[in-house]
Design brief:
single chain; 407 residues; alpha/beta; Aspartate Aminotransferase, domain 1; Aspartate Aminotransferase, domain 2; 2 domains; 4-stranded antiparallel β-sheet; 12 helices; 17 strands; globular; binds pyridoxal-5'-phosphate
Length: 407
């Protein structure tokens, strides 16, 4: 008899985006004359940069000729891309990361979901609340949790991110082994200072723990004092793995290219306390289960590091940041408390009411769609997330409507 992995039965169905879609279509049926502006889903809206498109086209043409055709490439990514990443993203900021510590992949979602299979079943996992759901669900699937009760899985150490701690979690009181952190944060849009991040690195070093640092939104950091990479923090290379993506900085959400940094010094332990290289383990996993990102996509990613590519990507991110500033200004003028939106595409707004009531109010009064915070965890109750991934025109119109409806 074929039996299933019953851990899958513990998963909570995510109704968040289907619930949103249902309420929006209901509204549209009842108000066919009104158009709805979507500031909900975390996907980019602007096209790829000309630098990436040019490199993409050229690489596609190379694939047509026997002499320049490429078949299977290195599983870890082509040297040209790994070198460009190491140099531009890390060495240029004083973080000593080498090309062979970069593993190119088809997404930070897959990598941040797959990484947990390197670790034993009985580790204690610390996960922020609210959170990007991948970290939690992949540990549920792997059997590291008990059942779901009152909005939380037994066996997980939740790191509450609330107004009281400015949405940067405090160190856990109990000992944990694996820690997920994401800054700039999705959904709250908050950032972490070097000093705060150092306390996590020190905790990990003192407890032989490991930090999984999701830096998918680093390109939105404009404050030069904030860390873009955890490897800007002294001592992090031994205790941290970092996830990066071309999705949000270069519009690759549909093109698919990302990378994970596993420094050679990064260690984990067997049950006898003997240390093992996580670089070697991840390399083994990657080569066994993954066959590389397509050559044209890697060329398109490499192009963001050319002079033109850098300027175009900066302009792309600046465009969304301008939206974020517009949203912040409007919410401030309406008297709402919020965080995020200055080094992040997300603004996290306190509604002083139930998340879904706040969502319905914005939809019904203004025809604006946001994301209810409760969909990201129990600490998200009472908040909504507004995303800056839209056109200037739509964001301006949405803010005009909010001002009229709520002012
Ligand atoms: C968008 C996003 C990513 C990027 O995922 P890809 O699979 O590379 O598109 C990673 N982490 C978070 C928190 C995100 O919001």
């Amino acid at each position: 008899m074929i039996t299933i992995n019953e851990n899958y039965l513990k998963l909570q169905a995510s109704y968040l985006f289907s619930d949103i879609a249902k309420r929006v279509s209901n509204f549209q049926e009842n108000n066919p004359e009104k158009d709805v502006i979507k500031l909900g889903i975390g996907d980019v809206t602007k096209g790829l940069t000309p630098a990436s498109i040019e490199a993409f086209h050229k690489a596609v043409d190379e694939m047509a000729e026997d002499s320049s055709f490429r078949g299977y490439g290195p599983e870890q990514g082509y040297g040209f891309l790994r070198e460009a990443i190491a140099e531009n993203e890390f060495q240029a900021r004083g973080a000593d990361i080498q090309a062979d510590e970069i593993f190119v992949s088809d997404g930070a979602k897959c990598d941040s979901g797959n990484i947990q299979e390197l670790f034993s079943q009985d580790i204690t996992v610390a996960i922020p609340d609210p959170v990007y759901p991948v970290y939690l669900d992949t540990n549920v699937m792997a059997g590291r949790t008990g059942t779901f009760e009152k909005g939380r899985f037994k066996g997980i150490v939740y790191l509450d991110c609330t107004k009281d701690n400015n949405f940067v979690p405090a160190l856990p009181k109990e000992q944990v082994d694996l820690i997920y952190l994401c800054f700039p944060n999705n959904p709250t849009g908050t950032t972490i200072s070097k000093e705060e991040l150092k306390t996590w690195v020190d905790y990990a070093r003192d407890n032989k723990a490991l930090i999984l640092f999701d830096a998918a939104y680093e390109a939105f950091i404009r404050d030069e004092n904030l860390p873009k990479s955890i490897y800007e923090i002294e001592g992090a290379k031994e205790v941290a793995i970092e996830f990066r993506s071309f999705s949000k900085n270069a519009g690759f959400t549909g093109t698919r290219c990302a990378y994970t940094v596993v420094p050679k010094e990064c260690l984990a332990y067997d049950k006898d306390g003997k240390s093992h290289s996580l670089h070697a383990l991840w390399n083994r996993r990657h080569c066994t289960k993954f066959n590389g990102v397509s050559y044209p996509v890697q060329r398109a990613a490499e192009a963001i590091y050319t002079e033109a590519g850098k300027a175009q990507c900066k302009a792309l991110v600046d465009y969304y940041l301008e939206n974020a500033a517009t949203i912040r200004k409007t919410m401030a003028s309406l008297g709402y408390e919020y965080v995020g939106g200055n080094n992040s595409p997300y603004i996290w707004i306190e509604g002083k009411m139930d998340s879904w009531d706040f969502f319905d109010m914005l939809l019904n009064k203004a025809g604006v769609v946001c994301t209810p915070g409760a969909g990201f965890g129990t600490c998200g109750e009472g908040y909504i997330r507004i995303s800056a991934f839209n056109s200037h025109k739509n964001v301006k119109e949405a803010m005009k409507r909010l001002t009229k409806a709520l002012g």
